[in-house]
């Protein structure tokens, strides 16, 4: 079974308008609400791929009830810890020229609410994988991801972590199955800038040395690189009008891990991950199955090392 952990889920309030002007009243051309948060997005894409997952996280207040109701409409398996604070609302402004996001802090999580989530993790089995993604709400620090990673490894299972900075680096010695920094996040980890692919591969190889089993570097419209202990692979991003950049990275993780759990094949996993990422970029919401299948045909993988 795949479990996703979204410590800080959200209702994503998507506002579409021609142009965003700060300091005045802007009016939308269309607006809608989506159940959001990185792990939730991973679970939603897994569902499109007909792969079972259970979404864990902290949900609370009236916004939390609305959020849960939205997920029920998507028929997602969920098992949330109910918290006393309100689930956040993240604002995604999609103007014709650019997207602007304002993400809330999320509710404070008490010690007992945190313990309730750790208790769920303590019941997984060795064949399972736990995917932890996104920011942490108030009163949870980086230690939270580390504690989960330690617990998962004690139980003989695998984990995947999609976060940045120290929170990511601290878990590497516990051997995450895959990490997926984008190329900007990877550069930040080493306080550098990249001028060519070789430098990106070298940085990813350093993360392998520190313990990651696989490093997937996403590069938005420039595709992705997968660096494994044996090889490095590159894949393209097909060209099409981009409708949405929210959740492309989450979609890529879903495709990669979902496939890895089936066949442990890095090339097949990269192929499906890239298809899911690009298919979401070409969709208003997260990608649906038909779009993923269409985009899959346009992905080419090349072994470059
Ligand atoms: N504009 C695009 N055109 C085609 N494919 C894209 C585009 N943007 C993203 N993708 C695909 O999705 C993958 C993940 O996207 P990206 O690198 O933007 O991840 P991310 O920074 O984690 O994104 P986000 O945080 O917005 O979900 C890319 O490696 C690529 O395969
Ligand atoms: O604030 P975080 O947890 O870093 O990111 C949250 C978020 O921006 O990530 C998802 C897209 O990846 C959205 O559904 C959600 O609003």
From TrEMBL:
<dbReference type="InterPro" id="IPR002173">
    <property type="entry name" value="Carboh/pur_kinase_PfkB_CS"/>
</dbReference>
<dbReference type="InterPro" id="IPR029056">
    <property type="entry name" value="Ribokinase-like"/>
</dbReference>
<dbReference type="InterPro" id="IPR011611">
    <property type="entry name" value="PfkB_dom"/>
</dbReference>
<dbReference type="GO" id="GO:0005988">
    <property type="term" value="P:lactose metabolic process"/>
</dbReference>
<dbReference type="GO" id="GO:0016052">
    <property type="term" value="P:carbohydrate catabolic process"/>
</dbReference>
<keyword id="KW-0423">Lactose metabolism</keyword>
<comment type="function">
    <text>Catalyzes the ATP-dependent phosphorylation of fructose-l-phosphate to fructose-l,6-bisphosphate.</text>
</comment>
<keyword id="KW-0418">Kinase</keyword>
<protein>
    <recommendedName>
        <fullName>Tagatose-6-phosphate kinase</fullName>
        <ecNumber>2.7.1.144</ecNumber>
    </recommendedName>
</protein>
<dbReference type="Pfam" id="PF00294">
    <property type="entry name" value="PfkB"/>
</dbReference>
<keyword id="KW-0808">Transferase</keyword>
<dbReference type="InterPro" id="IPR017583">
    <property type="entry name" value="Tagatose/fructose_Pkinase"/>
</dbReference>
<dbReference type="GO" id="GO:0005524">
    <property type="term" value="F:ATP binding"/>
</dbReference>
<dbReference type="GO" id="GO:2001059">
    <property type="term" value="P:D-tagatose 6-phosphate catabolic process"/>
</dbReference>
<dbReference type="GO" id="GO:0005829">
    <property type="term" value="C:cytosol"/>
</dbReference>
<feature type="domain" description="Carbohydrate kinase PfkB">
    <location>
        <begin position="9"/>
        <end position="284"/>
    </location>
</feature>
<comment type="similarity">
    <text>Belongs to the carbohydrate kinase PfkB family. LacC subfamily.</text>
</comment>
<keyword id="KW-0067">ATP-binding</keyword>
<comment type="pathway">
    <text>Carbohydrate metabolism; D-tagatose 6-phosphate degradation; D-glyceraldehyde 3-phosphate and glycerone phosphate from D-tagatose 6-phosphate: step 1/2.</text>
</comment>
<keyword id="KW-0547">Nucleotide-binding</keyword>
<comment type="similarity">
    <text>Belongs to the carbohydrate kinase pfkB family.</text>
</comment>
<dbReference type="GO" id="GO:0009024">
    <property type="term" value="F:tagatose-6-phosphate kinase activity"/>
</dbReference>
<dbReference type="GO" id="GO:0008662">
    <property type="term" value="F:1-phosphofructokinase activity"/>
</dbReference>
<dbReference type="GO" id="GO:0044281">
    <property type="term" value="P:small molecule metabolic process"/>
</dbReference>
<dbReference type="InterPro" id="IPR022463">
    <property type="entry name" value="1-PFruKinase"/>
</dbReference>
